Amino acid sequence: MPPSQPPAPLRPLRLGVLASGSGSNFEALVEACRADALPAEVALLVVNNPGCGAEQRAARLNVPCTLHDHRRYGSREALDRALVDSLQGAAVDLVVMAGWMRIVTAELIAAFPDRLVNIHPSLLPSFRGARAVEQALAAGVTLTGCSAHLVHLEVDSGPILVQAAVPIASGDTIESLAARIHRQEHRILPLAVLLAAQRSGLLGSAQA
Ligand code: GAR
Q1: Catalytic positions
Q2: Domain 13-199 has CATH 3.40.50.170
Q3: Distance CA 120, CA 112 (A)
């Protein structure tokens, strides 16, 4: 009998995070890694808005950060090629769109097949696209939430990894509702990363 393959060395997953705004989900991921809730490290943050909150959090948390300002690229594909170069240069295993407010193309998706996770502030497939919290309030629904999913080409589509429901209270404003959704996002995003890593064979279930 041929000798069996030695088990793959256990090493922390290397995560790349893409963020455009305040970066609270990015920070939640860093905290989950540092608390050993996730066998991973955030190897690189990429931002597209100079000076954004996520960039400031990266400096405070001592996480490497690269700026790719989308205004400097001629097309979505060109931006995504630059993202892939940076992410592959940092040898990341899996990429998380944590408030990445750009439509992504096949350039990015194909470079990380089933290894690209997005967090969205609604119970998908309801309220896709921009301003999902406002959309839910305007629709008058009494329940909304957040979804973490694998990224496919159609905006805010792809297999759901984890969802959390958030009831809408009478008198809720965009700010009050968004704050409650954020708290749930911070809870489910590390879990979604773990599930995505297990699904794509990056982690065995024993490492969870
Ligand atoms: C989050 O609520 C995330 O779900 C949303 O942006 C916010 C970023 O917050 N993403 C989208 O709407 C993508 N369609 P953060 O910068 O504090 O993590």
Answers
A1: 120
A2: yes
A3: 19
